[in-house]
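Subject: for your reference before the review

Hello V.,

The reviewers asked for a structural picture of the protein, and I figured it would be easier to keep everything in one thread rather than splitting it across files. Below is the amino acid sequence we used in the manuscript, unchanged from the supplementary table.
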Amino acid sequence: MQTPAVPHQAGHAGRMLAAMTESEVPEASEPREPANPIASSASGEAPSSSPAPGTQPARQPRNPLHGLTLEAIVVALHDHYGWEGLADRVALRCFQSDPSVASSLKFLRKTPWAREKVESLYLFMLREQKRQRGGQS
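And here is what came back from the structure prediction:
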């Protein structure tokens, strides 16, 4: 029996297919094993990172940023420090030159290092407010 010719099959898979006899070549209708058995679940579906419908994601009671949008953080910082105060504390052009919530959000969503600085300032502001409330009681 002659090995079937496999045109335009490059690489390892093409060589393996070319080396198979006709009886060994899988039919198109035969189910194939998944390429990555770890990535597929027992039901044959890929695992999802989001919770099932009707269930809530895990709570993070010790994470003060959990559930907050970036917009809420920027608005709270602006209300507390103002644009000039923000520019003094975090040297970002989006707070210095013609600042607005919309332009700041656009920049911060595209720039992870800047977002981290703003989130860090927000956490500092929360700690500062907590200290002030604790001293007044």
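For the response letter, the relevant points are probably these. The helical segments are 11-19, 70-89, 93-96, 101-110, 112-136. The radius of gyration is 28 Å.

Happy to draft the paragraph if you're swamped.

O.
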